[in-house]
Hints:
It is built from eight helices and twelve strands. By secondary structure, the protein is α/β, with parallel strands linked by helices. The strands form three sheets. Strands 8-7-6-9-10-12-11 form a seven-stranded mixed sheet, sandwiched between helices. A three-stranded antiparallel sheet has the order 2-3-5, with no helix packed on it. The longest helix has 15 residues, at about 225-240. It starts with a strand and ends with a helix.
Amino acid sequence: MVAAVMSNARDPRFSRPGHPPATITEFEGVRSLHLGTSWVQGAMRLARPDAIELEYVQMMMMWTLFLPEPSRIVQLGLGSAALTKFCYQRFPQAQVTAAELNPNVIAICHAHFGLPPNDARLDVREMDALDFVLDAANHGTVDVLQVDLYDEEARGPVLDTPEFYAACAACLKDGGIMTANVFGDFSNYDKNLDAMREAFDAVVWLPEVHDANIVVVAFKDAPQIDFAVLYERAADIKRRYNLPAKNWVNGLKEWMRDHLA
């Protein structure tokens, strides 16, 4: 989540009433998504539309260090569809689902951010993320859950209760992983981390990146961490997906040194 100077004029196609309007700006080859405010809700480099542009969104892929071949990946909060597109294109064995409440976001992602139409593997749903995780039909069905839920004010995650995170954990299969972006007022950090710790077996986070985004990794079952193995996997992730996975492993080491000493 980052702030921009201004957003463009509203397009009636992406301004359905009852929801914040979706708008875009472009600067130095990067197209950014806004919800009618200066806050950037996602971004795409026009020369590399299938890559993940923002560093914190790249970090949301940190689960690849532990789950190289998931069969179901779910995104709560579509943003600019960067994670949804990337997972759909790069993990052909996986079913990819996204839950997004704002129809304006879905429409602008199709029109301006290269989101493909739904098919046998891709399912972008206009629905509340809370309804998704509370639905018993989704419990025990998800390998990877990526959570990035913000409104137009971007003061903190719109869903942050212990009940929400317990439902997120319930959606995961054994060994499943949730990654979540925690951003906003300082008080939000401890509130979200405490709620996650109640629901998950292990919770870690990486050092904050631009504009104080912190990416949290929550494990349904605490993993055995062998840093030699993780660095090997990171090198493979860099080769296959061009993601800076070595930085993630370094961040994990730093977290363990600071919190488990």
